[in-house]
């Protein structure tokens, strides 16, 4: 069993994406940064989609009531066991009574804690991931709070390993996102494209697992005609009338009526979960063929280390 001592700003249980239900209005959810969660699970000998803890900005602390192996990946942060620093991207043994603390992030936004056992969570529509707006999955469909006690099932042994240095994502607060033009891209004028691709924008405080708002000194103008709501996905970039683009994340709605100007490519989507308020964001335009090439290239890099990365 794991006891939550400090849940920080927002700590949830996440697992694989909830697939096959978008036509009912149910988002996929899952980790905001699926690559980091995959790496954490790999370190404890688990499948990429095994349940793990996702922490946001301020970290969290946990007391373990039995011996187990753990790992922490994701945002640049500090990790300590009983007050002694331990490394990220490494398998760490803990004993009954030990306290693990994940500090507030220095760069990036979200950290992941995986364990060598299955974190007990409620399954809903084929996934144990927490979907906060709907109140299902995870632990009672909500963010964790101090005093929660989470059972760990099927505890197993795990070898002590480290993620190879070249496979560890490096997060900072200047984020470059590759993106393809979307349905209303043609309605962006030259100034708007200059803002998106050259000047960049800043992530505002309006940030959650549903999406991240971007703002700058100048509004991004999109003169697209009104349309009916149409499908949107994680990585979709919408442009509301006030000119503050919004990047959709794992928990975002399944349809939207605002102009859909860009789509962040699949191989870069893990970075979306690491954009914290105040970070600078700039886009790089890619073609669909280039997006496919980059996804294949990323999979080739990780294929020998991860059996099934969710990126």
Give a written overview of the molecule.
There is one protein chain. The chain has helices spanning 34-43, 190-199, 288-302; strands at residues 2-6, 11-14, 52-56, 60-64, 68-76, 79-81, 84-86, 92-94, 99-102, 107-115, 118-119, 149-150, 152-153, 174-181, 201-207, 211-215, 230-231, 236-238, 246-248, 255-256, 260-264, 280-285. The protein is mainly β and 311 residues long. The strands form 5 sheets. Strands 14-21-18-19-16-15-22 form a 7-stranded mixed barrel. It has a 6-stranded antiparallel sheet with strand order 7-6-9-4-1-12, with no helix packed on it. A 5-stranded antiparallel sheet has the order 2-3-10-5-8. Strand 18 (236-238) and strand 19 form a beta hairpin. The chain is globular, with a radius of gyration of 19 Å. The model has no long low-confidence stretch (mean pLDDT 95).
In short:
The protein is mainly beta and 311 residues long.
Oligomer: single chain
Q: State the helix count.
A: 3
Estimated share of beta-strand residues: 25-35%
What Rg do the Cα atoms give? 19 Å
Secondary-structure element pattern, one letter each = EEHEEEEEEEEEEEEHEEEEEEEEH
- Helix/strand-derived class? mainly beta
Termini Cα gap: 30 Å
Using DSSP, what is the number of strands?
Answer: 22
**Percent helix among the residues?**
10-25%
Largest sheet: 7 strands, mixed, barrel
Label the overall shape.
Answer: globular
Q: What number is the mean pLDDT?
A: 95
Residue ranges: pLDDT <50 for 5 or more in a row? Answer: none
**Lateral arrangement of strands in the main beta sheet:** 14-21-18-19-16-15-22
């Amino acid at each position: 069993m794991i006891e939550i001592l400090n849940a920080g700003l927002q700590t949830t249980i996440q697992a694989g994406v909830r697939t096959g239900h978008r036509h009912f209005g149910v988002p996929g959810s899952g980790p905001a940064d699926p690559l980091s969660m995959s790496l954490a699970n790999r370190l404890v000998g688990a499948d990429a989609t095994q349940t793990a803890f996702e922490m946001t900005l301020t970290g969290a602390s946990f007391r373990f009531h039995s011996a187990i192996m753990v790992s922490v990946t994701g945002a640049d942060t500090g990790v300590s066991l009983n007050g002694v620093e331990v490394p990220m991207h490494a398998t760490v043994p803990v004993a009954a009574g030990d306290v693990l603390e994940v500090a507030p992030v220095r760069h990036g936004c979200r950290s992941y804690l995986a364990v060598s056992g299955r974190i007990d969570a409620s399954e809903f529509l084929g996934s144990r991931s927490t979907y906060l707006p709907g109140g299902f999955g995870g632990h009672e469909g909500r963010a964790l709070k101090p005093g929660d006690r989470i059972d760990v099932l099927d505890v197993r042994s795990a070898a002590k390993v480290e993620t190879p240095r070249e496979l560890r994502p490096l997060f900072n607060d200047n984020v470059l996102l590759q993106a393809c033009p979307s349905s209303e891209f043609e309605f962006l004028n030259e100034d708007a494209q200059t803002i998106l691709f050259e000047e960049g924008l800043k992530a505002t405080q309006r940030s959650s697992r549903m999406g991240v708002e971007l703002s700058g000194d100048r509004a991004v103008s999109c003169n697209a005609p009104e349309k009916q709501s149409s499908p949107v996905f994680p990585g979709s970039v919408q442009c509301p009338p006030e000119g503050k683009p919004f990047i959709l994340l794992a928990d975002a709605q399944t349809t939207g009526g605002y102009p859909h100007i860009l789509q962040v490519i699949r191989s870069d989507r893990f970075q979306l979960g690491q954009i914290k308020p105040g970070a600078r964001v700039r886009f790089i335009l890619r073609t669909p063929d280039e997006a496919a090439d980059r996804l294949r290239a990323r999979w080739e890099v990780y294929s020998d280390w991860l059996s099934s990365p969710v990126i």
